Every structure is written in C-alpha cells, then in structure tokens.
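Sequence in, structure out.
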Amino acid sequence: MNRRIKACFETASSSGRKVLIPFITAGDPKPEWTVDIMHALVEAGADLLELGVPFSDPMADGPVIQTASERAIENGVTLNTVLDMVAEFRRDDEHTPVVLMGYMNPLERFGRQEFPAAAKAAGVDGLLLVDCPPEERDDLGAAMDDASIDGVCLVAPTTTRERLAYLARHASGFIYYVSLKGITGAGQLDTAELQGPIDQIREFSALPVAVGFGIKTAEMASTVAQFADAVVIGSALVEVLAESSSSAEACAEARAFVAPVRESMDNMAR
C-alpha cells in the first residue's frame, strides 16, 4: 500500500475517525483555482483527495461531472496539467493522499509504462481507472507497483462473489464500493442496503472500504460512515463549485460544503 494512503487510513482508524474523500474535477471551474480548492478541502477536514482527470467520454460519470470535464478540457487541461497541479499542491502539503480518477485514453497517450513514474514524481498516490480492470493492467500494473502507486478497484452491487474475490486479490490502497447501479450523482442511495455488500467485501479483503456515488449531504455521509471506512462525495460538491466566480469564492464554497460533512461524520463516531 502507498505510504500516504496507508498512513491516512491507519491514523483515522486509531482515532476513531472515518476517512472523508471529496472529489473534484481537475481544472474546474478554472484551472488556476484547482490547487487552492484542494488546500481548502483539506483545511475543512478532507483526509484524502480524489482528483478527476478530465476526459471527453467519462462513461461512469453523470451530467454534473461530464459538464465539469467539458469545461476543464475547453480550458486546456490535459493529463500533464493535472500532474502539474498535484506537484504544486505537494509544495505545501506532503501529507494528504491524492488519488487520480479517470480513464485509460489519456494515460495511453501519455504512455502506459511512463505514466506511473511521472505520477509518483508529481506526488500522486493512487489511480482509479474506471475502464481498466486488473486483468488489463499488465505492464501498467507493473509500473504502478514499481512507483508505489495504489490501484484502487471498483466493486458494484452487481459484482459476483467470484469477481469480488479476484478484485480483492489485485486491489491496493482501498476498495471503492459503487453504491448505485448507475452513474455518479444519479438515483437515491439506500443506506440500509450497504451493510451486506460491505460485509461481503470484507470477507475477501482486509483493505479499507470507501463508498461513493449518490452521497450528497452531511446526513447521508454520516450514515454511510457507520458501515464504511471512508465516504466519497463528488457530484454535489462539483455542482456547488461550478457557480463560483473567483478562486476565493470557490475555496469558501469548498470549505462550507466539506466542514459540515466532516462534523457530521465525527459526531456519528462519538
């Protein structure tokens, strides 16, 4: 497991906290605001950051994140830009883990074997590649191992036990449970249905379990945190940031969004 991700979950567990993972799209609403927003999220209580790599065909993402990707691409954001953002973030924050969430096309263009080393140099800790299951990693997986970049695996409500056993053997960092049969930001999350799937994941893996998709409020986050080791919240935050007219406003909105989520999750643990 990557050292920053491992330390993040170990520290949270030892203090009785659950890990809060906000998602933002790199370069949205403006590329020059992203690093400041990342710092604001940490200041408000984020433990780990999930940074979306803009892509023209984000198949797992709903309209909010699709539109965010479009804005970022129109503003010239590329995979190299995203790495530059992480490197700039690392100048002032050597502690908070950063996981890139994205798709294979930009990475293939960069170079499957070259990208993990570049990501490590920038300060990236993990990759969540929606369209690259473990059996298709091959040379990429080997390069990720060499760079100590965790490969986060997605598990869905439709994942069979046989498939789950396979994913558990190849996941690192943490396992991301997709709580909905759909895209990000869609549908209504039924928290009562979380216990069984999370228990099943833990039959096969000792890795922490993060839950995302469909979590929109502090109340929902604290409820999910009763079952999971980490909570991912994305579309609702991205939607709030999209209305910002300046970096200062975006940072204020980020803090105002994340702080009550952190407080609610911490109150749940007491």
